[in-house]
Fold these 2 entries.
Entry 1:
Amino acid sequence: MHLSFSFSFILLFVGLIGLISYTLLIQNASGNMFLGRNSTNGKSLDVSVKELSIPSDPELKELFKVFFFKPHTNIIQQHVDYDFLILKDGKTVFQRSNETGEPQIPLHTTYGQPEIPVRKNHNLLNGNYIIKIPIYGILFNPIKPEVSEFNFNTTS
């Protein structure tokens, strides 16, 4: 019985260390949370998303940084036409292109690393969301739309 308790305690301790290590791995010292990196469904780009620490702006709920990479490299892809959507239960609750005054017109990033502010008035309640990033063009050339998706969880 004593051996079984010790073994269980060791397993619990190792699991806790693993969880702490994983958390530290995906969250850097500035509080930025790495949400992931994956390829678009057509493999034209790799996309990475980080949730950034919110500066002292009382109007912001979330702040994201998107990185567009040439496929399977760490080279930033410049001049990408895209959008940034947040979905809850399959419904769009935020669409960045609708915030620009030109709804539904794709956004353009010159340097391949846009920041996406999400204001508090969008009412992102606690829960799980999907970030969807459709790509419409690369280097001023339209492409058949491709999408990259990420899971995202928010708390108050």
Entry 2:
Amino acid sequence: MRRTGSQSVRSLADGIGIVGSALCALHCIAAPVLLVAGTTLPAAFMTDESFHEMLLWTILPAAILAFGLGCWRHKDRGVLLLGVLGLVGLSSSVAAPHDLIGEFGERFLTLGSAGLLIAAHLRNFRRCRADDCDHEAEAGE
């Protein structure tokens, strides 16, 4: 079956969202390890707020595009719920004052939100791929 432009864009956006969310989770785990290991240059970059914002500005449009195109097609509200919760959590971890949620709270919120976003993108990808399957055309061959 031939892919349409919106299917390719949605698949690309899901891929970017999965990679971006995984980078958020990896960042939360790697930053403390790098600090303990004594590698100050990469650790200094990874603990900078601009890094968090850059990841968020990469993930946010990819998620909105992927979930918007996917949910419009397959109407799975579970994808939308997981995606919205993940995006709100991730945005909150960047926007919330550090003193309010603390280091542990920020990591917990980021890891949990990244997990929700990865689950939403995977579910979206699978639902869209299942909807692209044309069983009637295959049966007629």
